[in-house]
Amino acid sequence: MVMKKKSSSGRQKIPIEKIPNRSHLQVTFSKRRSGLFKKASELCTLCGVEIAIIVFSPAEKAFSFGHPEVESILDRYLTRNPPPRQESRAHQQLVEAHRNANVHEQNMKLTQILNQLEIEKKRGEGVRPN
């Protein structure tokens, strides 16, 4: 017995016009919004760009996507400041890592000294005459 394949309409081209049905409009917005954010993320990954997208739903709720952050990109756009050069970012990260390592080392030394001080205080309490 040969099974007939059910024919379908396949992927239909959707006319680009305002959707009159409010619930269909909301569903379409949600699906397209996630697709838009996904494409923006792919663009960031593939090309190493920084991007910010802000959209308002039909219910006037704001949604945003930004890489690295929407706020930093908007601030840079509004002030028209160019981004810092890549070399200076790498240098700054290296300096910050060194500073953090030094702070960690100093914290470890301080902890050891405080522990020794506590031990000496306890010894001193045991030696005192009554």
From TrEMBL:
PROSITE patterns per UniProt: MADS_BOX_2
- Which segments cross the bilayer? none
Presence of the UniProt keyword Transcription in the record: yes
Q: Name one GO cellular component term.
A: nucleus
Q: Name one GO molecular function term.
A: DNA-binding transcription factor activity, RNA polymerase II-specific
Q: Which residues form the MADS-box domain?
A: 9-69
Taxonomic superkingdom: Eukaryota
Q: Does the keyword Ion transport apply?
A: no
The record's Gene3D superfamilies line, in alphabetical order, gives: Transcription factor, MADS-box (3.40.1810.10)
Q: Which InterPro entries match?
A: MEF2-like_N (IPR033896), TF_MADSbox (IPR002100), TF_MADSbox_sf (IPR036879)
Q: Which UniProt keywords apply?
A: DNA-binding, Nucleus, Transcription, Transcription regulation
GO annotation, biological process = positive regulation of transcription by RNA polymerase II
Q: What is its main location?
A: nucleus
Question: Which cellular compartments is it found in?
Answer: Nucleus
Q: What SMART domains does UniProt report for this protein, alphabetically?
A: MADS (SM00432)
Q: What is this protein called?
A: Agamous-like MADS-box protein
Give the organism, scientific name.
Answer: Quillaja saponaria (Soap bark tree)
